[in-house]
Amino acid sequence: MAFMGGVFLAVQAGFNTQLSGFLKQPIFAVIASSLFSVVFAIAFVFMSGKDIPNSSMVEPIPWYLWGIGGLFSVLGITFYFYTIPRLGISKMITLGLCGQLIFSLLAGKYGWLNLPVEMITTKKIIGVVALITGIILINAK
Description:
Elements: H1 2-23, H2 26-48, H3 55-58, H4 68-87, H5 89-110, H6 122-139
Helix pairs in contact: 1-2, 1-4, 2-4, 4-5, 5-6
């Protein structure tokens, strides 16, 4: 599922970059993508038959958690739509993946964002070096 999630994000980035080109502004593509994401998410909730959260589930949630993910989503997607036409999708995806991997190692090491603490091991460092080497090779002319 995680692999397919990456595939879907790359496909989404390609389609929305096309939309961004027509609209001449990446942020308008982000708005359209976000609005349709809401529509599809609501449809998936109804099709799944899952219960809608009740007030006892919602009340203890800190106020900022309702929107901060959306802020970072808009920023990240806008950066993607802006950079794909300039860099190409393979460079954007590899550089984006590198950013995700390095941040995830640091966030895991220090437990940022209430994540479980994970040690940075020699294997993980070798993996990061291998990934960065791959990014350099993919992006080399």
